[in-house]
DNA sequence: AGGCTAGGTCTGATTGACAGACTCAGCAAC
DNA sequence: GTTGCTGAGTCTGTCAATCAGACCTAGCCT
């Protein structure tokens, strides 16, 4: 199972703080210190995570300069990073359902056009909505290798 | 941001092997040694992950006995665990898109009824499909605490 | 010149991952 | 009835990662 894409994805996403960092970036927080203060991630870890995410092409480091301030860098999502929205929304949905405080989730995601709440849903290529997880069948894909 | 549900979820899901274990369970692999051989996870780590997942209520440990064999235990998904399908499918989709070998993904998920491929999609409560990640607006939710 | 600020580095203690060897219960074959 | 096998672990030692806290640095402001 060395070519398992879930394992590979988790090597990037599974580093305990990675998704928290990404949530901040999706939220519009792009600066090192803002992230640090808002999340409480240790500096060193944040430095490492950001560097890793840049190296993986999920974020890119962009110079910017505010008037009266020196040149700095901010972190922005690449296309690869933007495509993580469904992952983030799915995790958020699950967390909200099972791990939220009684008063509810601290974060909501809404549709720009209509303002309604956005959730992650499963649907098949034929357009059917999949509601029961038991209706999903895992099967070997094209890149599957036969185990002995 | 101590009540952030993403951080809480990642405390469970973010342990580098957790989703790989869950993928196996979703795949129908329920036994310790099968998982170990298929994934290459070190015994100790697998023991810890399984215990943690049971403690968190994602898996439950069920006794079973095969004829001519002694009593053993297998690991099965709880409702809380089954609800992780969207997360897993979202991660799988992302991994397939950006991290797969040229020959493709080793795992496909299909709809039981029609056999078509299942993917994670974003949609809002009004029923709109959300295709562009930029159409999603993050906002403070009911449980948000004002930062000073 | 001195202080402030964003974005880091350096250091040392604690925790986690990992490999490899060992354990242990029950069945089975000799 | 002892030997061996198998599934599901535990024990041990090494090496890497996390974390907290102090330190550093470039450029701006006073």
What does this structure look like?
Two copies of one chain form a homodimer. A two-stranded antiparallel ribbon of chain A has the order 1-2. In chain A, strands 4-5 form a two-stranded antiparallel ribbon. The mean pLDDT of chain A is 86. The longest helix of chain A has 15 residues, at 85-99. Chain A has six helices and six strands, in the order H-H-H-H-E-E-H-H-E-E-E-E. By secondary structure, chain A is an alpha+beta fold. Chains A and B meet through helix 1, helix 2, helix 6, strand 3 and strand 4 of A and helix 1, helix 2, helix 6, strand 3 and strand 4 of B. Chain B binds a DNA duplex (30 and 30 nucleotides) through helix 3, helix 4 and strand 2.
User: Quaternary status of these chains?
Assistant: homodimer
H and E order of chain A:
HHHHEEHHEEEE
Mean pLDDT rating of chain A:
86
The largest interface is: A-B, 86 and 86 residues
CATH architectural arrangement of the largest domain in chain A? Orthogonal Bundle
Number of extended strands of chain A: 6
């Amino acid at each position: 199972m060395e070519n398992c894409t879930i394992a590979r994805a988790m090597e990037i996403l599974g580093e305990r703080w990675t998704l928290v960092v990404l949530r901040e970036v999706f939220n519009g927080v792009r600066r090192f210190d803002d992230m640090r203060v808002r999340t409480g991630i240790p500096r060193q870890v944040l430095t490492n995570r950001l560097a890793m995410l840049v190296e993986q092409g999920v974020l890119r480091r962009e110079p910017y300069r505010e008037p009266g301030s020196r040149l700095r860098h901010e972190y922005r999502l690449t296309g690869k990073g933007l495509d993580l929205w469904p992952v983030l929304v799915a995790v958020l949905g699950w967390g909200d359902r099972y791990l939220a405080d009684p008063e509810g989730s601290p974060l909501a995601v809404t549709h720009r056009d209509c303002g309604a709440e956005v959730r992650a849903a499963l649907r098949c290529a034929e357009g059917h909505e999949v509601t029961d997880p038991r209706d999903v069948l895992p099967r070997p894909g094209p890149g599957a290798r036969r185990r002995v």
